[in-house]
Amino acid sequence: MPEESTTEENQPVSKMVTPLAPAATVELSLAFGIRSGVADGLQFADENLLAYPCGNYIVLRSTQPQEKLVQQNQLEQNEQQRFLPLGRQGQSRVTALTLSPNRRFAAVAEGVNTESDRVAISIVDLQSGRVKRQVTGGAADQLLAGADFASLAFSHDAKYLAGLLTGPSGCQLAYWQWSNNKLLACYSPSGGVVFSQVSFSPSDPSLVCLSGGSGGGLRVLRYADGQLRQAAATAGAGGVPNIRLDAAVSGAASRHCWLNESGLALGTATGRVIVLEGSERRADIDLLSGGGGGGGGGGGVRCLQPCSRGFAVSLEKSARVVLYERVDGAGAEAFVRSREIWIPEEASSDEPDAEPVAITDLCVSPGDDTLAVLTNRRQIFTFSLVSPLPEKDQVEEFEPLTDPSHNGPITGLDVCLQKPLVATCSTDRSVRVWNYETGRCAQRRRFADEAYSVALHPTGHQIAVGFVDKLRLMSLLADGLRTVKEFQIRGCKECAFSNGGHLLAAAHGNTVQVFNTLTYQCVANLKGHSGRVRCLAWRQGDIGLVTGGQEGAVYEWNLADPTGGRVWEHVTKTCAFTGLALAAETADGHGHGGGGGGSSSNVFAAGTDAATAGLREINPGGDIVRRSAVDAKDESGAVFTSLAASAGGRALFAVTSTGRMCSLPLPLGATSAGASRWLEWPGHAESAVRIRLTPGEDILATVGEDASLLIWRPTTPLRSHRDRPAWSDELLVPQPELDELRSRAEELRARAEEIRISAAHELRLQRAAHSEELRNLQAEMERREGEASVKQAALHTDRERVEAALMAQLEEARVEAERSLIEAGEVAEARLMREYEKLQAANASAQRMQSEYETRLAEEAAAAHAAMDRLAKDHSAQLAELRWRVELAETRRAEEAAKSAETIRLTEEDADAELLANKTAFEQRLQLERSSVAKARNDLAEARSRSKMADRLAEQRSTELSSVRADLERLRGVVEAARAEAAGLREEVAERGATIAELEHQAEQAAKTARKLESGNFVLERQLSETRAKLEPRERDVRTLRAQAEDTVAELRRLDAEKARLRLAADDLADRVASAEKAAAAEAARRRRTETALARLTADLHACAGFSQDPKRLRDCVIAMHRRHVDTAAMAPEMHMANEVETEFARQRRHQESTVAALKRKLKEQSQLLNKQYFRIMQENTGLLQQVRELNQELAKSRSETRTLQVAIGLHRKDNSEAKQLVAMVKSASRRDPLEELKGEEFQRLVESQRTAISQLRQQLQELQQTAPPDVDRTSEVEAVAGSVSLPPIQAAQ
């Protein structure tokens, strides 16, 4: 038995006995198709890298689509697709796949191994591509016998691995610590419950969730104390979510996903999604109803994946994915539908006979940027989740990442010579043509019957497909496949075009028929096999055809012989041949090594005979020349199923029934003692059925029963690049379609010619119409220019007249204001003199009263001393006198109170200036009287106390006479204290008087301001009314002028534009007329010259006609005539005329440009002039409007102050006639001097000094009243003084 070297799983295995030259090595370059039957077979290995199984590999494909792969640059191809080996090199089935959360490891679950009868899990490092660990089940009885893994899951820290096994006897959950291959616990549900999905909690590796399957529902398990137990419904400690499920929900759960540490989304078999967070049910969404976004499928939930803000869900037989997002504060329904993405309709319409497109798996990238789905047609679609939200009624669709592949075992394969095409057919009744340069499916078509075999024409323009009842020859067109010829061959399992493409060999049963692809005639009918023909191979030159049968016979047929006889034969009855390949010819005309004569090369044949070595080399004589010392059956019982040999004799390639790819060096070992070495690589997941080598020997294509197509590239060139054929870019187009395109092109040309002729005609008509319109517009423009000039002159005259009137009115207003100001000053000076005279009289009266007061004060002092002396003698008389004084004071107080009330009443009714002054004086007097009454009360109290004291003294006089003198002294002290108190009171009165004076001064200032405003109010009203009366017609004129100016400007601009256009057109017409006249004159001169020359030529011809019998003279005459009438210089006028036309055109263009520039300058100057005039009028209007606004503001302010003054003086009372008379006097005075009081700083200072003197005089008067004895009546004097002092009437405003 051969020895097997120990290598890594993803390295080729070398089987050898003796060392020879190494075989050719290959590497996987491209893979078409996706492996079915793998749970979670589509996942993201990175943000932009998808992982999915294909063949016996994990394909890492970029989500960035590339339209074309670079043929020679393997690095760029590897960036598009990378390959990691799956399982144990095709020895067992792969049933589940999962990636760790950190995207570093991939766990691949393998089915039951035929050797060990045990399942295993391979942990693959995604960075290095090596198998890091093989996880097995430990003891033989620990795992469920005869079960396969249905689901795998990594914990969030990637330390633990959970695998769910399902089999005929039930299901089992295995819990590993995979780094040391330690099986921690197993859990088998009771009652025959079978689950289909397992997952870890995103935060707790000891918490595992199971769902789905037959009667499985949902179950949460916890690993503790070496066992997996069902988690309690009320558990909430240690990070375990508090999940509460009712029986209906738990039993209906078919899919689930974790949203957070305590949240689960459950998909049910009835098409509902239930979101649980802890013990609360956050959402219950019915996907089959309209409210839940149903449609696009039916049945239960098929796919459910978490996103950053929610989850993505898809139903069974659905072509749509719905995204739900969490909404904060949404109450019980905390999730709302955010997006709805559909599979494009083109994915279903391209194969109408196939089953409807449905999503079978989906995944979301780690950054939640991309959503990828896998359909039942083994096609991957992607969608960018960061794209903007669609508008209303806009449908969002997936973008295809791959093309749909076969959905059943592939039965046929062939390659093309002139194009990078590979054709395949499958039991899914479809034929597909792949382009391995672009990595896309070029053509695909589904038929009603199953396709058994396929063959590509060397040109790539035709394809032959064998069906159950016929063989169809079809043209490979740009838009699909079209049947050209149908051959009545039933069950064609093998077919092949010749190297030249003119012959087609088709095998059905034990017969091979050869057809001419040009005439469609059968040129040979080869019969001789007793079993089914399983392989065909054409010789170089297409003369010989080698066939291999299931009965163990290999024949070569000579097609040059009309009888179609056999050249040689090789029969091994115990071997069924499965593949043929032709060896390269050597210099002696044979293949590798001797062993037979003839000019043909040897044939490599692969069969199932283990005893005689299944791989052998047969010479043209039918004898076995060499055999492979390596047994065709290895330890797994695999046999070679198909062969392909390089034309250069470098290597022989083969595929096996286990799906492996093999490479054998040539020549094979000559004897059994010498053995050759061959290499193998993991390829397909199931049996490989075909292998083909392109004519350029740079591509190997293999297909298998796993519905995958693998493209291999030799790492060492098998042929020079110069020998490789160049690709053809020709495409076949159907003749009806080509005729239709040509007819449409002719129609478009005819239509274009019609449009050109019509446009030329319309252009001529437009030119004529424009010329006429230009003349009319030019006349109209000249007329309007004259009218505009007249209007502009009239506007200018009106503007000057308005400006002169405004200036005259402004001058009159200024003179009137100055005159009013002078008159107001004179009136104010006269009033000031009157007030000054009154002030002098008040000062004289005050001095007189002061002297009298001092004299009386001295007398009162002396009388007080005398009274004190008399008091000691006769206290009874003094007491009576004091009582009389008290009564007198009370009577006086009552009288003074009545007088004060009367004074107040008169003051309120009087509105005159003197009445207002008396009101103030009486108020002050009232205050003085009140103070005097208070003082009298104090004196009365003091007198009563003295009376009591005198009574006590009288009672004690007999016993204490000496105490009288003491009391007298005490009374003197009291008098002195009273005097001191009176002095303090005088000082307080003086301070209060100053305060009152200040307040009066402020009141006078306010009254003065009010008077000024009142006086200016009427003036402003009058001026405002006059100004409005004057401005209204001016504003109307201004608006009229503005509208006229705007109309004029617009009209001028339009006229200027029309004038410029008309002038240009006129100049153009004039130039054309001049050019036409010149051309007519030139044409007339040319006609005259032509007539003259024609007459001369006629005469010369008549003369030459006489020499018709003399050839020599005739020749001389013709030469002379030629010299006279033909001149080379005569051909120049046309060029000269063209130069003149070009010069004239340039001159006319310069003239038009200068005219346009002059018109533009003139228009610009007129526009600037009109704009300046318009802006000046607008500025003047703005100034007038500003003055009107200011006058309105002053008027409103004056009215407000007037209303305040009217309320203060009581003008609103109906019976206040005096106040109304006062207002009338103020108005009459204000009419006499309305503006004079607005200025005059000297007048203001004089008034303020007079007010100060009056305040001082009033203060002295108050002091006199306070210091007067209570028995002296000074009321008349005070009234006289108050009557002599008059305050201004405006003081009532206080």
Task: Please summarize the sheet with the most strands.
Answer: 6 strands, antiparallel
Overall 3D shape: flat
In DSSP terms, counting alpha (H) and pi (I) runs of 4 or more, how many helices?
A: 12
Distance between the termini: 135 Å
Mean pLDDT comes to 76
Structural class: alpha+beta
Total strands: 59
User: Which stretches are low in confidence, meaning pLDDT under 50 for 5 or more residues running?
Assistant: 1-20, 68-78, 234-245, 291-295, 586-599, 629-635, 670-676, 1229-1239, 1270-1294
* Order of adjacent strands in the largest pleated sheet: 1-2-56-55-54-53
The percent of residues in helical segments reads 40-55%
Strand content: 25-35%
Computed Rg: 63 Å
Task: Tell me what you see in this structure.
With 1294 residues, this protein is α+β, with helices and mostly antiparallel strands. 41% of the residues lie in helices and 26% in strands. The protein is built from twelve helices and 59 strands. The strands form 14 sheets. Strands 1-2-56-55-54-53 form a six-stranded antiparallel β-sheet, with no helix packed on it. Helix 4 (735-873) runs antiparallel to helix 7 (962-1105) and helix 5 runs antiparallel to helix 6 (913-956). The radius of gyration is 63 Å and the shape is flat. The N terminus and C terminus are likely disordered. It holds the Pfam family WD40. This is WD_REPEATS_REGION domain-containing protein.
